[in-house]
Write a structure and sequence with these properties.
Largest sheet: 7 strands, mixed
Helix content: under 10%
Number of strands: 11
Radius of gyration: 13 Å
Order of helices and strands: EEEEEEEEEHEE
Low-confidence stretches: none
Distance between the termini: 40 Å
Number of helices: 1
Oligomer: single chain
Strand content: 35-45%
Shape: globular
Mean pLDDT: 93
Structural class: mainly beta
């Protein structure tokens, strides 16, 4: 049974940084999947913030995080992906989910879907709170 587990969330002050991890278990090699990070703020719809197509050279980022967040695949471990978040703002607060899908090849298309729960696999989320 495939599972995705997020970790690394927490409480951070504005301007701070966090690195989220998404670890896959079960028979899955994330290199073959388009992977994405989504977030859901309280009272708002989920938003795709960073998505990486399985055959794309560069990820897609939403305008709200471009230049501040970086999604990457672990070069030595093809079952882990990361979301490096810098210059965090209070509006970055929310539950962050990772998702993986075999059929979608475009990171931009994946991030355009409003819910991570539509994909092949998704995690239970990790909470990020940005506050002073």
């Amino acid at each position: 049974q495939v599972q995705l587990v997020e970790s690394g969330g927490g409480l951070v002050q504005p301007g701070g940084s966090l690195r989220l991890s998404c670890a896959a278990s079960g028979f899955i090699i994330l290199d073959y999947y388009t992977i994405g990070w989504f977030r859901q703020a309280p009272g708002k719809d989920p938003e795709g913030v960073a998505c990486f197509g399985h055959s794309e050279g560069s990820p897609f980022y939403s305008d709200s995080v471009k230049g501040r967040f970086t999604v990457s695949r672990d070069k030595d471990n093809n079952t882990v992906v990361y979301l490096e978040m810098n210059s965090l703002k209070p509006e970055d607060t929310g539950d962050y989910y990772c998702a993986a899908d075999l059929d979608i090849s475009s990171g931009q298309r994946m991030c355009g879907v409003t819910s991570p729960f539509a994909f092949d696999y998704w995690g239970q989320g990790t909470q990020v709170t940005v506050t002073s």
